[in-house]
Design a protein that fits this description.
By secondary structure, this protein is mainly beta. Helices cover about 10% and strands about 55% of the residues. A hairpin with a 4-residue loop joins strand 1 and strand 2. The radius of gyration is 15 Å and the shape is elongated. The two termini are about 15 Å apart. About 10% of the residues are buried.
Length: about 90
């Protein structure tokens, strides 16, 4: 995949939605932390799902990076993400 394909692929990531999770309570410290999920579909130029595409999500504050490959329909998901801003590539 050359750089123009990667740029097109990034431009075609569709259906991205951020779903907020519940609160997880640590009973020892009585603290609450917010976790969420990101789900989406990588589509090709004809709007078909792109299976096997590499998807990376990076938390802007912590630089936590997770990687996944899309499923047979181009879908991907990242669960249990700590709160904050992130970039998806």
């Amino acid at each position: 995949m050359d750089s123009s394909d990667r740029g097109s692929l990034r431009a075609l990531i569709a259906g991205l939605s951020i779903v907020s999770g519940g609160f997880a309570e640590n009973t020892e410290a009585a603290a609450q932390e917010l976790y969420g999920s990101v789900v989406g579909v990588v589509r090709d130029a004809q709007s078909g799902g792109l299976p096997g595409a590499a998807v990376v999500i990076v938390n802007r504050d912590t630089v936590l990076k997770r990687e996944a490959a899309t499923n047979h329909e181009g879908g991907f998901s990242f669960a249990n993400l700590p709160g904050g801003s992130c970039d998806v590539h």
